[in-house]
Specification:
binds flavin-adenine dinucleotide, 357 residues, FAD/NAD(P)-binding domain, seven-stranded mixed β-sheet, elongated
């Protein structure tokens, strides 16, 4: 996978794929077979969409010719499969703007200021752009980026600090364990905060948390955040409401809120495309939306008989690639070729066919 360098320069490309979930990744493959270069953008810091964000280590049984694989394995296989096409990935940023230019191309802008000009767009935005669930304490917002964070920090970044970690999933518990482990990178104190003493993280992670709590290396409080305390422009404590109805202050230097991700259709709804119950209406011959040149595949689209399954998204991506090719290469005749026998496809895939010598 090629991570594109951050640059203010306008990037010209054949196609932009919005969303790096399983369907967006397979879209790169199908576009690549038709020699359409793609840039892929996702608001998550790694590719995989729901497969990584929601069930990375759980099994999937209905991918054709794969009896079973986990969400993470499926994504890894898709990344291997698309490697020959060197698609550029712009991760950890949301596509905010999609606008048609006078020459018929589309201008795409991301939340990190990446600007692209594309002949076609395929939206594979799933159930929406995954964003961290926010702390429901408005007064804390000004401290975001200085003392309030929604992602786990780099190892050592919080050494010697008093840290509160809010959450009950793998991310929160693993982060609390890392920060509390003896060593140079250890925080001065770590308190895990969740509304009850029951966690949805993997059982072995929960067990390690219990051990560290028992040994006093990790604090825990069953409570919900309700407010903050600040002094001289610094966040000094989080006010929490405990199970017995009392309010208390948790002193801290850093607050990590790792309470999971929630998808928001967000800007996709503002691009002037026909929607039906928050999904993009498509023509099933090519999965084109109401705007010629913009296609929608995977969970984000709707049509009679739609099933939100990865397998269905793969089929949609195949037809969308042919639809997109008509915009990228309007003069070129489009033929169906088999990867088994086509010398052109072997060339684009970078594989040598023994039969071709
Ligand atoms: P997603 O996987 O949702 O990916 C979309 C991506 O687009 C996301 O990463 C999102 O951040 C990004 N995005 C959206 N908007 C923007 C934007 N504006 N800018 C930047 N990025 C954006 N399906 C099966 O076929 N078999 C199964 O066994 C199965 N098991 C499942 C188990 C669970 C627990 C869940 C929740 C789902 C399961 N599914 C299963 C459904 C399957 O995961 C989805 O059908 C599939 O992920 C859809 O892929 P997608 O690429 O369309 O969208």
């Amino acid at each position: 996978m090629v991570s594109a360098p951050a640059s203010a320069a306008l990037i010209e490309t054949d196609a932009v794929v919005v969303g790096a979930g399983p369907v967006g990744l397979f879209q790169v493959f199908e576009l690549g077979l038709l020699e359409i270069r793609a840039h892929v953008i996702d608001s998550l810091p790694e590719p995989g969409g729901q497969c990584i964000a929601l069930y990375a280590d759980k099994p999937i049984y209905d991918i054709p010719a794969t009896a079973v694989c986990t969400g993470r394995e499926l994504v890894q296989r898709l990344l291997t499969q698309i490697a020959p096409f060197d698609a550029a990935f712009h991760l950890d940023q949301q596509v905010d703007v999609v606008q048609r230019e006078a020459d018929g191309r589309f201008r795409v802008e991301t939340s990190k200021g990446v600007r692209l000009l594309a002949k076609t767009i395929v939206i594979a935005g799933g159930v929406g752009s995954f964003r961290p669930r926010r702390l429901k304490v408005d007064a804390a917002a000004p401290f975001e980026g200085s003392q309030l964070f929604y992602t786990a920090p780099e190892p050592g970044a919080l050494a010697g600090r008093h840290v509160v970690v809010n959450g009950d999933g793998d991310d929160a518990l693993e982060c609390a364990l890392r920060l509390a482990q003896p060593g140079a990178q250890r925080a001065a104190s770590v308190t895990l905060l969740h509304r009850r003493d029951d966690f949805k993280a993997a059982p072995e992670t929960v067990e390690r948390v219990r051990e560290l709590r028992a040994s006093g290396q990790l604090g825990f409080i069953a409570a919900q955040p309700t407010g903050i305390e600040q002094h001289a422009g610094r966040l000094t404590a989080l006010q929490v409401l405990t199970a017995d109805g009392s309010t208390r202050a948790l002193p801290l230097d850093m607050l990590l809120v790792l309470t999971g991700l929630s998808p928001k259709l967000g800007p996709i709804a503002d691009w002037g495309l026909a929607l039906e119950r928050k999904q993009l209406v498509v023509d099933t011959a090519s999965f084109e939306t109401s705007t010629p040149g913009i296609f929608a595949v995977g969970d984000v689209n709707t049509y009679p008989g739609k099933k939100k399954l990865i397998l269905c998204g793969f089929h949609e991506a195949t037809l969308a690639a042919f639809g997109a090719a008509a915009h990228v290469f309007p003069q070129r005749p489009l033929h169906l070729e088999y990867t088994t026998t086509s010398p052109r496809l072997h060339r684009v895939l970078g594989v040598a066919n023994p039969a071709e010598g």
